[in-house]
Amino acid sequence: MLPVFSGPLGDLLELVDRGLISVEDLPVAEVVRQCLAYSLGDVAQEATLVALCCRLVLAKARAVTRPPARPMEPIAVVTPDMRRYEEVRQGLQPAVAALEDLAARGWRSFRRRHRVSVPAGPPPPEAVPLEALAELARRRLKELADEPHYQPDAGPTIQEMVARVLEVLKGQRRVAFSQLMALCRDRLEVILTFLAVLELMRQGVVDAQQEEAFAEIWIEAV
Amino acid sequence: MDRGGLKAALEAVLFVSPDSLDTEELARAVGCRAEEAEGLLQELAVELQGRGVRLFRAGGRWFLATAPELGDLVERFLGAGRPARLSRAAMETLALVAYLQPVTRAQVEAIRGVDSWGVIQSLMERGLVEEVGRANGPGRPLLFGTTEAFLLHFGISGIEELPQLEELRELYRELTGRDE
Lengths: 222, 180
Hints:
The complex is a heterodimer of chains A (222) and B (180). With 222 residues, chain A is mainly alpha-helical.
């Protein structure tokens, strides 16, 4: 009945299923029409024939509605280095698992939270022990003992200033305090002269008079 | 000062120091040679096992921190929240840096097969990874390594405490021709 096949419908379906005949090339509608026109005189046999026709139609429908084949995936260029990188990556998985195990353990450590002030720069020189200081002092004193005796600059004394005031007063009844100050060579003599006048007043040797505020102070022999 | 005194002095300096210190700095602080300090620090690390404070070493620098197994207790005391869980990509990148450090970004990406810059940056923001120098190759790319925070995060006192994966390191050595 067909240019490529002649025989029972069941055999045709078998060839189609095996891919030996392309269902897309078959005039399925014509085949079905011929089959259905052929009366077998037995309901069961005719039902089987209808079922075979349905299978043939289904095969044809599937063939013509099949999506076009996807273009072939590009073949990845795998160089030896890439393979080795992949090997390293595979080898890395136990490392990942190890870290995950550590993380799952839930152990964590903490450092001190507050900061302490640490001076920048080199550390200060070490402290000199007391014994060392004492030894240095002893040594220096021994050196001084061998040197000429140390004579501090002897400054004036209150007694000397008392003598000076009395010397100025000699032969006169009174003397101006500013006159006594004018005789002083430095601040120490000024202080000592003032103290000498106070001492003489305390002893009742002299007295001090001032006619008005900020006027001259007169030191008078009593 | 005898060895015991020096060891105690090293512990005291480590206790008050706000930053980690290398062996040279510690030796200078206590007045001994660096080799002697190295040995004493190793002994101190062993002696501190089982104590509440442990001696850690990251990148040749020493510091004291709490015992990892007391993490929960200290965390509660400080009111600190638990750190966010690391993603799979972050964990993979971190493992790569931890085991093969120092590594460049290009090496990380070649091994992982994907762009990993975002993950590296995220790990740096979390303080687990840092720049540790530059490679000598063309362009002198940055090298990355793990930080002290990485040790604290995983509760290990040194990178050598990670499970040994010599096969991984061997594969990497063959790949890069790098001698560790």
